Amino acid sequence: MQTVFSNAVPSSETLLAIVRAQTEIAKLGLDLGGVMSFVAERVQQLTTADGAVVELAEGDEMVYRASSGIAANLLGLRLKRSGSLSGLCVESGDILRCEDSETDPRVDREACRRVGLRSMIVTPLRHLDTTVGVLKVVGKAADAFTDDNIRALELMSELIAAAMFHAARYETSELYLLATRDALTGLPNRALFYDRLRQAIHLAQRSSERLGILNLDLNDLKPINDRYGHRAGDAALKEAAIRMNRAARRSDTVARVGGDEFAFILPGISSKADAETLGMRIVEQIREPFEFEGRALDLDISVGAAVLPDDGVEMTTLIDRADQAMYAAKRRRKEERM
């Protein structure tokens, strides 16, 4: 089956879940990247899929801008539009279904094997009159989805489309900026960080250069929120972002990858010691005095570094090593306070 026309009415439980999703999306406001991540996770649950992806069409590529389940580690992945079911969905504007990726000639079979999927449904994401991407659910088994799943996927895609409209009412090109930027700090978000990190690793390996990453966690944000409110917490996050940008080199990428989590990509770093030195400079800048509405707020951050190829050559390995170093720094900080 190629094009899917579903008149199935989702169950009352599914419809209730979609209404609840609308409420959660409203809370995210203009955070388009956050909306896409939320929808990917929620549509996976609604369809009992093994994974879900939001892909945006950028030039001749489809880019994973949100992902969950078995596709979670592929955030930022770029695939050619031609020869893929997602690219065909963008071209046709139709909902497409693949019952078995091993026999369907429309799919990128190697990409499917990389993800670990055998079946999928792909539905278009439309902004104004243009199909700008797809929402996709994937299953490890062949023929994993029902007509009810198709309709649920279609309704969830409409929630993303509505968020796209409110975030960028007139310019389709603005979508890509909004989808890859953190709404609070203006920094690259998790999706853009993974995208750039994949490309930076490829470039470093090709040129036999080192590449550093830093994982950073803003300490004691919860006590600030609890004591002074979320406006103070947001102010602390924005100030931390400004100070990190000030410490970064021109070639570095600084990103907000979670609630109180940040990360750096450090191209052309000479050694792990240099990455750690930059990390300490960031810590010193974050600790400088900061006031919000006349109140002094104590800002502090824990940093962990990893360097390619010293700590590994795979993206997940480097992130894990930087995480381990960052959590070790947090433990040392707690011990020093005791």
How are the SSEs ordered, and which strands pair?
Layout lengths: L11 H17 L3 H16 L3 E8 L2 E9 L8 E3 L4 H8 L3 E3 L10 H7 L3 E9 L2 E10 L7 H21 L4 H8 L10 H18 L3 E9 L1 H8 L1 H18 L5 E4 L4 E7 L4 H15 L3 E3 L2 E3 L2 E9 L6 H23 L1
Antiparallel strand pairs: 1-2, 1-6, 2-3, 4-5, 5-6, 7-9, 7-12, 8-9, 10-11
Helix pairs in contact: 1-2, 1-5, 2-5, 8-9, 9-10
Question: What does the model show?
Answer:
By secondary structure, the chain is α+β, with helices and mostly antiparallel strands. It has two domains: 12-179, Beta-Lactamase, CATH 3.30.450.40; 190-337, Alpha-Beta Plaits (2-Layer Sandwich). The protein has helices at residues 12-28, 32-47, 85-92, 109-115, 147-167, 172-179, 190-207, 221-228, 230-247, 272-286, 315-337, and strands at residues 51-58, 61-69, 78-80, 96-98, 119-127, 130-139, 211-219, 253-256, 261-267, 290-292, 295-297, 300-308. It has a six-stranded antiparallel beta sheet with strand order 3-2-1-6-5-4, with helices on both faces. Strands 8-9-7-12 form a four-stranded antiparallel beta sheet, sandwiched between helices. A hairpin with a 4-residue loop joins strand 8 and strand 9. Helix 1 packs parallel to helix 5 (147-167), helix 2 (32-47) runs antiparallel to helix 5 (147-167) and helix 8 packs antiparallel against helix 9. It is globular. The protein starts with 11 loop residues before the first helix and ends with a helix. The mean pLDDT is 91.
